[in-house]
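User: Quick sanity check before I run a bigger batch. Here is a single chain. Can you write out its predicted 3D structure?
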Amino acid sequence: TSFSTPKKKKRDDGMREHVTGCARSEGYYKIDKKDKLKYLNNSRAFAEEPPADTQVRTRPLLAAGRRSEQRRLLSSFTGSCDSDLLKFNQLKFRKKKLKFCKSHIHDWGLFAMEPIAADEMVIEYVGQNIRQVIADMREKRYEDEGIGSSYMFRVDHDTIIDATKCGNFARFINHSCNPNCYAKVITVESQKKIVIYSKQHINVNEEITYDYKFPIEDVKIPCLCGSENCRGTLN
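Assistant: Done. Predicted structure follows.
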């Protein structure tokens, strides 16, 4: 049952040659410090001293590649909404800490869990993009189901975002005649989105509000924001 283990051979570079052909199958073994230093010195010299012709060829190519990458980024961000696109990407990368709870204005409200500086994106108004005809049908159906609050946000003449049953925390933002935020329609990759911006500095536990800007109608909706310049009605 005793087999004679073959003698370990060394290669020209000082490293031991693997008899089985695989280093994992031979277990752990120590390497002499002299062999290790010799190997490290050879690898460092090879890495730090590339051929002269390689340096001449690669440096202009790297510089040209960086310049083309910068031009590509600048061209992709040109247009009317370049700053909005950058901010929108930052909004997706780092979301604001928000919570919804009971509000003194109306039912539920959205509150800040961290300080928010002025002119920052707070949250995107998320929902289903529907047409005006579908919005009218759903509004009647919601009334029949007993859903009194409306969570529809008009994007343009043809598109409306319905966040009643498919939305995020943005639908809980209440109206105020003296709001600390405002809504803005931006275009990201040829798609219109509604994003809530902060008008001023917002403290922790302060409620997020914006002006709904409802059209003027005969049937008035009372406003309960309680601000000094309250108009009394939402429409």
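The mean pLDDT is 77.

User: Great, the batch can go ahead then.
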